[in-house]
Design goal:
This protein is α/β, with parallel strands linked by helices. It contains 8 helices and 6 strands.
Length: 251
Amino acid sequence: MTDFNTQEQQEQALLQKIDRTRIPAHIAMIMDGNGRWARERGLPRSAGHRQGVETVREVVSYSHGLGVKVLTLFAFSTENWNRPPWEINFLMSLPEQYLHTELPKLVEKNVQINLIGDPERLPVQVRKAIAEGREATRRNTGMILNFALNYGGRMEIVRAAQALVNDVLSGKTDARVDEGKFSSYLYTAAIPDPDLLIRTSGEHRISNFLLWQLAYSELWFTKVYWPDFNRLHLLQAIYDYQQRQRRFGKI
Ligand code: FPP
């Protein structure tokens, strides 16, 4: 018998190894593998997405408990519009479903809900759910929970460039551009860049996520499908992150 065989014991062991003063302030996640999780169980893809929402509940709650300051979840990309209509509709029902049960808890936990991405193409029920979430948590000062919906990194950069050009042309700002000024035109204007990016399901790609913001982030990949991702995996990612040396180009 091993010493740490239950999930609870493994969790305690990892928690003892983790430096609680160096929890990554901003964690971004590419939640991938719902479809494969379902297929391996002979279930429809929707079952994978539904189970994926359960993982979101757990990850949000646990990250908050650990003192993460910003959690950014890639829930729907600009490329995901190429999926079959039934699946798009299903994915679009998830933010509302999640917030329906979680919003009161998020309000109480001082979490701030935010959207990154272009709301224009999102169905009205998604915009409404997010707007309500934002409004209800507007005065909160704790963890920022960013939902990336209809989000694409290139689209975000192009949109920022266009907004900056418009402001230069209208005389709102001068024509000097530096990184700080450019960042202020991104969806993440007031938010520090991610310290850690987690991607599930064994893919080793960024997939057009936070292209500008991930410049110096630590990347952590796992083969585990998103519906199976749990607090132990999150603790392992944080522990591995703490073993790395972030040099930001310096020696
Ligand atoms: C990527 O591939 C995943 C998505 C497009 C959707 C992810 C959405 C969730 C995990 C739920 C979001 C929850 C809320 C509350 C917004 P895939 O999972 O379809 O997997 P595959 O590559 O195995 O087919």
